[in-house]
Structures are given as C-alpha cells and as structure tokens.
From TrEMBL:
<feature type="domain" description="HTH lacI-type">
    <location>
        <begin position="5"/>
        <end position="59"/>
    </location>
</feature>
<dbReference type="GO" id="GO:0003700">
    <property type="term" value="F:DNA-binding transcription factor activity"/>
</dbReference>
<dbReference type="InterPro" id="IPR028082">
    <property type="entry name" value="Peripla_BP_I"/>
</dbReference>
<keyword id="KW-0805">Transcription regulation</keyword>
<dbReference type="GO" id="GO:0000976">
    <property type="term" value="F:transcription cis-regulatory region binding"/>
</dbReference>
<keyword id="KW-0804">Transcription</keyword>
<protein>
    <submittedName>
        <fullName>LacI family transcriptional regulator</fullName>
    </submittedName>
</protein>
<dbReference type="InterPro" id="IPR046335">
    <property type="entry name" value="LacI/GalR-like_sensor"/>
</dbReference>
<dbReference type="InterPro" id="IPR000843">
    <property type="entry name" value="HTH_LacI"/>
</dbReference>
<dbReference type="InterPro" id="IPR010982">
    <property type="entry name" value="Lambda_DNA-bd_dom_sf"/>
</dbReference>
<dbReference type="Pfam" id="PF13377">
    <property type="entry name" value="Peripla_BP_3"/>
</dbReference>
<keyword id="KW-0238">DNA-binding</keyword>
<dbReference type="Pfam" id="PF00356">
    <property type="entry name" value="LacI"/>
</dbReference>
Length: 374
C-alpha cells in the first residue's frame, strides 16, 4: 500500500511550516488567504486528510462519527416570513437569554423551516450513534474549498455527508482516508458508500395519481434540478407522463432554487397571464410549501385553482393548510443505515462499496384534492 501523505509532505509542497498547515485547517483566520489556498491545493494534490491519530488519540481511533452538510440547511432567522425577536420580550420567566429565546419561538410563525429533510435524517443518525455508544460530531458549511469537511473528517472514524453542488472531488479525497457515506448522491466509481431513495419511483406514483384519480393532463415541474434528487424526480414525472400517453415537458417550468430571494418568477408570470398549468409537481416539500403560500397571496386556491405536490414528507406538510400531498422518504431509517454502514466498514465487515436505495411512500392529501391522509 502506498505511503499516506503526512503534514510534512503538505508543508514541503506548499513551502510553509507544519504549523501553517495545521492553522490552515483548524484556525484559517490566522493564515493569509493566499497561503491557505496554497496549503489546500497541496493537500488536494496529495490526497491528504489530517489524521486524528496524529493528535495523540489512542489506537488511531476517535470513537466518534461525523455528519456534515454542505449547502442543505436553512436558517430559521433568515427564512421568508419569519419574524425578528421582539425588542421588548415582555415579562417572561428566566434570564435574558431564556426570555429572548422564548420570544423568538413565540413570535415566529414560519413552521416550514424546521424540521426539514436534513433534520430528520440527522435525528436517525444521532439515535443510532447513541444506541451504539458512539460520539457524534456535526459540521456544516458551503461547498467552496472543502476545508470544513476535511477538518471534521480529521476528528472522526467515519463520516456521513449531505453533499453540495461542488463536493464530489473533496469527498473522493476524504474517502481515501476513512469510510464516507453520501446521502442523495448518484453511485459512481470511487470509494464512497451511498444511501439514496427511489426518487423517480415516488415522482412517477404522484404523477400517475394526478392523472388517473384527478383526471389532470397538464402537469409541470417546479424547482431547480441542481440536486441529483431533484433531477431524478423530474425524470420520474416525465416518464410517467410518457407512459400515460401525455406530453412530457422538456424543461422544468420554474427552476427556482431553495432559499431564492425572488422565488417562482415564471409561476407569477403565468398567474398574471392566466396560463398556469392545472398541477405543479415540486422538487421538494420546501418548494411546495413556499409555492402554496405565494399562490394564496396571489388570490388562487389550492387545490381549487391549481394542484400542488411536494416530495420528502416533512412534518410541516402534515399541518399546513391545505395538508400537502407528497412522497415520504424514510429519513430516520436513512440516518440509521448510514451509521450501520460506517460501523461495518470500520469492523471490516463490508466488502467493497455499499449502494442502498430505500423505498418511498406517496401520501395523498388535500393539496391534490384528496381527503387528509396520514
């Protein structure tokens, strides 16, 4: 087996000290940006990941697993519709911090931002770590140069990741050092393990339901297909339409990404011109819930004027009005399965890469015209 690169190799390649290499990963604010970039470039070229055992951990194991999100979390405070904390929270019991937290909770009515898909998967991951007696380290950050995920990988024995748009290269690098499970990422060559769901099958079931049960023959897709999951859902919708003898759109109707500051411009234009399709299949529940709010502000009824469906099965869809027709992912099971794969990898019980696709379950509720269904 080839000798693994060390901090000394990176320091030599970047022309810096080993302390600078360490600071570049652990305390980047102490390093000039150009120097840090040179260190990261050298680490990438050498496939270097800092080693926890190099920090003196016994046996080369940390006893911890990691969970990292690149771009998939939404901040409640910055979400559309969330209210700011009151300047004067009133006579609540507890200290200032407790009062402010209580005021924030009481004043925020945007239930759509938590828990989301990543929160429910994380819960399953946490529960399984606790059951197996493993510590858990959680990290998050933008795709960028990958320094954040490399740093957390240096502190754990195995890592599960919600990938971002530019994360493939850095994840391949990390997977050479320790087992890595990627959620919602297509299987490909390399050493990454995968946990996915049947996105195409779920979208196909939704589409068939709209056509066969509700006699809808004009169906379009909303949401930017930047994530593999979203692209697979769009393809599943199109496949169902073709199989049913209906025209399948070549492009997404409105490619609004999650968290867009000016969401659904195409939908708004179609509402104004009176040319909105009868049904809109959304890339995610978050898209769908935001879209329903927009349509109601524009004076349209869901499902009376337009049918809206989601995908994920987050809790907000159950309590929204109308309740959201969607596809439920087994999110807790996904988190638990990721821990199982990592533990088996560490015990050398896994031969080769694991690629698991879990089934999904359609939930037909009020937003498509059905009675409320759990």
């Amino acid at each position: 087996m080839a000798k693994r690169p060390t901090v000394y190799d990176v320091a030599q390649a970047a022309g810096v000290s080993i302390a600078t290499v360490s600071f570049s990963f652990r305390q980047p604010e102490r390093v000039r940006e150009s120097t840090r970039q040179a260190v990261l470039d050298a680490a990438r070229a050498l496939n270097y990941v800092p080693s926890a055992s190099a920090r003196g951990l016994a046996g080369g194991r940390t006893g911890a697993l990691g969970l990292y999100s690149f771009d998939m979390l939404l901040e409640a405070a910055g979400s559309r519709g969330a209210r700011p904390v009151r300047e004067d929270p009133g006579p609540f019991y507890g200290g200032d911090l407790a009062e402010r937290a209580f005021a924030d909770d009481a004043d925020s009515e945007d239930f759509r931002v938590f828990p989301l898909y990543v929160d429910e998967v994380q819960r399953g991951f946490e529960l399984e770590c606790a059951r197996r007696g493993r510590a858990l380290l959680i990290g998050r950050g933008p795709g960028g140069d990958g320094a954040g995920v490399i740093d957390i990988a240096s502190r754990v024995d195995g890592l599960a990741v919600f990938p971002g748009a530019r994360s493939q290269e850095v994840l391949d690098q990390v997977a050479r050092r320790l087992p890595v499970v990627a959620f919602a990422m297509p299987y490909g060559p390399g050493m990454l393990h995968h946990v996915r769901v049947d996105n195409a099958g779920g979208a196909r079931a939704l589409t068939e339901h709209l056509v066969r049960t509700h006699r809808i023959d004009e169906i379009e897709f909303v949401g930017a297909p930047e994530m593999t999951d979203y692209a697979e859902r769009f393809d599943g919708m199109r496949d169902a339409l073709r199989e049913l003898g209906l025209p399948a759109p070549q492009r997404v109707l409105d490619p609004t990404p999650l968290g867009a500051e000016d969401p659904f411009p195409v939908v708004r234009d179609l509402v104004t011109s009176g040319r909105l399709p009868r049904a809109l299949v959304c890339a995610s529940d978050q898209h769908a819930l935001d879209l329903v709010s927009l349509l109601r502000r524009l004076g349209l009824s869901v499902p009376g004027d337009v049918v809206v469906t989601g995908f994920d099965g987050v809790a907000a869809g159950r309590i929204s009005s109308p309740s959201l027709t969607t596809v439920r992912q087994p999110m807790e099971a996904m988190g638990r399965l990721a821990v199982d794969i990592l533990m088996n990898s560490l015990a050398d019980d896994v031969s080769g890469v694991v690629d698991r696709t879990l089934p999904v379950r359609p939930l037909y509720r009020e937003s498509c015209g059905c009675a409320w269904e759990r």
